Structure of Phosphoribosyltransferase:
Amino acid sequence: MSHDLARRTLYPDRAEAGRCLVASLSRYAGRADVIVLALPRGGVPVAYEVATALKVRLDLLVVRKLGIPSHPEYAMGAIAGGGVKILNDDALRAYPVDRTLLESVVAKETQELIRRERAYRGTRPPLRLKDQTVILVDDGLATGASMMAAIQATRALSPLRIVVAVPVAPPETLEAMWGEVDEVVCPLVPERMVSVGYWYQDFPQTSDEEVIALMDKAGLAESSRARAGEAEDDHAR
């Protein structure tokens, strides 16, 4: 991992950021026991490039940040499927939130999590991660609350190995990640994070339509690879 101290290095966009992760993950290429899980929405364009280059499966793990009401971009925690809830004690000390307001935010974000799971995963079967190597991908980390929730939700499904791969994150957040997973990949580690979007030239909000289109595209590629594999097996027989 390299520290960006002297100058500000920018990713052109999320797709290019995803391509920058591939070299560090090349040993996972073409493996049936590897799955890339994107954290929607911003993590999907990044994860699509990773999964496509590695020729492995792509799926989604929906996580919702719990923003502090007075500073919505600052996470006081996060939730994921299966009832996972992470709270950021440092954030709550800096910006105290009473229990009623906290529960209101959790309830609102839970409804949005359910909506996104229905919209994005559609008819896909439930995640089965037992004995799999799972690569969790987002477009960057700030506090890391959302990724921590994703890690907990993933761990509950008994994977063999968990890898976190993100284009940019501050050193203290990555240090916390190393204590939770088997491997962390992050090419850009600025001492002063500012925000995830600060490290991108083009950082628009990823739309629901873009998420669904990329997931459909990845599904078609996976089906094509599966058919090619079956044809090879038939030819070998």
